[in-house]
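Contributing new records

If you add data, match the layout below exactly. Sequence lines come first and carry their own label; structure lines follow with theirs. Keep one chain per record. Anything else will be rejected by the validation script.
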Amino acid sequence: MLRFRYMPTLKKFAAVHDLVWKLFNTECSLSFGAIYKLNRAAALAEWRGLCTG
């Protein structure tokens, strides 16, 4: 966090990082492989949809 010289820049980064982390973070140890892969595919499709706008 020392790379950010201005607090607004840090807040913007933290907000985006939090959204992306929540989208892609799943506890793979708590789910079966097939379910995990389906969840990952859905998350990636949603991410691609957001990026293409």
